[in-house]
Amino acid sequence: MEISPAGWLSVLGGAGQAAAGGSVTALHLLQQVLQQQGVSTDRSTVLAPVLDAISRALSAEQVDQQLPGLQLLAAVIPETPAACFRLNYMQWGGQALGLLKADPAGPQALLAWSILQQIFLRVEQVVEEAGVRKEASGLLQRLMQIAVPLLPQAAKQPGQGTVGMVEAITAGARALPPAARSSCMALDAFCRSVIPAASTPQALRSALAQLYPLLPRAHSDALSWETSMQQLLATLHDGLDALFMGLDGSDGSQQARASLKQGVEGFWSGGKALGQAATQGQADGVRACLDTLEHMLTCSQPIPVPLPATSIFLLLTRILAFDDSPAHQGRVPPSASGYRQLLGALPGLHVAALQLLQQLLKAGGGTLRPLHASLSRLVSDLLRRVAAAGPATFSLTSWLVRVEVYKLAGAVVQAAGWAAGRQMNPTAIQAARLELYGHPSGSVPATAETDPLAKIAPHKKRKRGRGKGQGTQGGSNGAADGLGPGTDGAEGAGAAALEPWRRETAVQVAVLQLLETLLQVCGAVIPQDQRLQLDAMAAHMASTAFAAAEGLAAAVETGARESLAAPLQLAACKALVASILAPAPHSPAFLPLALRLLRQGLSCPDALLSSLCSSALLSLEVLLQPHATPPAPTRPLLAQPPQGAHPSSLPTSYMGPPKDGEVLGMPRMITEGRAGGASMQSTIQRPPVTQPVQQTLPGLEVHAPAPVWGVDSSDSEGPMPEIDSGSDMDASAETSDDDL
């Protein structure tokens, strides 16, 4: 079926608009249109008329006729096959640059920047092919010649196309760092002047935060990256000085600044004015600099770079240490309206600082070992601050901050090991009791004993009641989530009614993940009383979550709540499995409960939960039968085969336990994977056995089980534990390692 060019443009223009909206790809929409018209086609067949329609549209003289083709081209470039893209990308880029050169502020400029961005994103994937790097470098340099003269005007008055221009430059600098070297000075000055400015739009800040870490890559110099990082940290300190209005004291600021290199100056341009509007602009500038710092930590560099971990840690500690305590101490802020605005922006700064600490742990790895003790003390203090407030913490502390605190605690325990876990475990238990049961003592409300739905969030009604009088920080939480005053209405009123469930579920999932990490990392070294509390909480929350899931499944019109309860059920099940498998000097007290819940979870419709229950039941098999033979048969050791015979051709008479001094057989993956297996036989001699072993099966050696407590042979009294934890071995099994 032939379609006129005008018809193609109308169809393709609508498909391009839908694809740009993110609903479905343009080519998929075109295939659906053709199939509805009775034309069966595939992707390659659709692409030819698409490119022809784009070429016709771009060759038109009227701007209105060019816009559908530009929009469609921006949507089709990510889906174009590599061979087709390799043939056409230089032509597409040249046409986009021609439109920008003719009118950089016209209506087609935004689409032209988007096309160039998509081109360089695809170039990054095929840059190693022959000729692509050289051709694309020339295209990027032509782009810089058009974009760099526009930067001074964009810094003063950012327009609608400024974000698209920055995104196109970012894609080009990421794909071809050396080609952007000549423009780095102009781009660096543009980033310095725009990122912390109070009048910068948020979209432009986010785009520049991704561009700034790419500039040192063009020089491939560690000194350039270090200088950029030091200047960014100094800028953040200048911004915090202006934002905190001197209320955080001078000790923390001076100590943090002392960790920077001498003579480093920042590029803070947010001002130091007082007032509500000025404080909001300063808070936005500080958050933009924190986003830039996060990209600096996550952006890969072609060479090793020095990480100022101590300076970053002290900066983030300064942010987390600031709260509303100056007002309680009687200190008068310089601006009352600015101070209220600062308290409203403080939860967002705390969340950004906590997330940056997690990124610092990932980026630093083992080099952060000197900071592990300081990180443990910081996290313990944060957990203690949450637990000390009691039930009031639900209205005083943002739920987002609490979620990130628990995530950071788990990351620190995984990085620092059991030493950090033992230090923060008492405060973690108190905070977990508060979050899971609504009270530091861990007492469950009376309704939770009878109503399984209330067990998901025992303090749910209390949180719903703080709609308007939750203070400055609490009021900012709803605004951050896109909720206005009074959105916590009656149940069934829509998405707003599910917000308390979503918040409670997110916090409690983070708490259960922290408990799981504590049990996995330091379950064997924490005191017994604390271990029993962790085991009891994990078992009770798992039982409660399964009961709540059953209640929600039986209730009417609870599909959304049932989906919210699934993550909580999964996290509780993981914590219970970690509790059972963690080493302990006694048999697991909640093993029967765990087996019952895991068998129940096998039939759960949630694929993640059923998969977890299946693997967990297999892991718990060793606790049920610790001295049983493996469920899968093991390959017995081979006796010395005849000369020139392959092990796979040996009869069963040769299968038996090797004797002293005989040659051991090669592993199966070696003998069967190479020709001439007989010549590949190992010459490792089996050491002589100094103690006879008990043989129960042909070809299998089983040592006598050792007592758990390592008691003497003369001590024959006293009951033995049911589960062999393998903590100690007596003299009867001392030669087990030598035997193997």
TrEMBL record:
Entry GO CC: nucleus
Signal peptide (UniProt feature, chain positions): none
Region spans: Disordered: 443-496, 631-656, 698-740
Domain of life: Eukaryota
GO biological process: rRNA processing
Biased composition (Gly residues): 468-492
Compositional bias (Basic residues): 457-467
Protein name as catalogued: Pre-rRNA-processing protein RIX1 N-terminal domain-containing protein
Record organism: Apatococcus fuscideae
